[in-house]
Amino acid sequence: TALGALLRCFPCERLCGGPAVPPGALPPATGPPRRRRPPRTFRSYLPRSHRTYSCVHCRAHLARHEELISKSFQGSHGRAYLFNSVVNVGCGPAEQRLLLTGLHSVADIFCQSCKTTLGWKYEQAFESSQKYKEGKFIIEMSHMVKENGWD
């Protein structure tokens, strides 16, 4: 069948029940043996002496406590914090969304390490009372964990 042809292993056809390759028909494997992947590294590491927020899924550093502006924000899936700046996040394309506080141009942000969507970045606010949010970041509490000296 056509599907069987797509699933067929090119050199030996064994995966889909085809004939086995006679011994010596394939060239010997060359190259170094496969090594284990190195541990993940993040673009930025925040100082251990500071209280920080990290990704709950992979523990990549996200923000210092000193960058926290407000704890009284609402994300798509619950409470969220507003930060002045963040690290180790990627930014998607901007789009207009009608949020609780009006129309904004926002871009989803995601963890650079594990690709989990964390929240969004405010690109533009269309109401003058909301302009302070421009260039700031929302991270939902369900996607971050507090680390270093919160006792």
**Which regions have little confidence, pLDDT < 50, spanning 5+ residues?**
1-19, 37-42
Major β-sheet profile: 6 strands, antiparallel
End-to-end separation in angstroms reads 64 Å
Number of helices: 1
> What's the name of the CATH homologous superfamily of the domain at 52-147?
Peptide methionine sulfoxide reductase
Q: What is the CATH-assigned architecture of the domain at 52-147?
A: Beta Complex
How much of the residues is beta strand, in percent?
Answer: 35-45%
Number of strands: 9
Averaged pLDDT: 78
Keywords: Metal-binding, Zinc
GO molecular function, one term: metal ion binding
Region (Disordered): 23-42
Family: Belongs to the yippee family.
Key terms:
single chain, about 150 residues, mainly beta, Metal Binding Protein, Guanine Nucleotide Exchange Factor, Chain A, six-stranded antiparallel beta sheet, three-stranded antiparallel beta sheet, 1 helix, 9 strands, globular, disordered N terminus
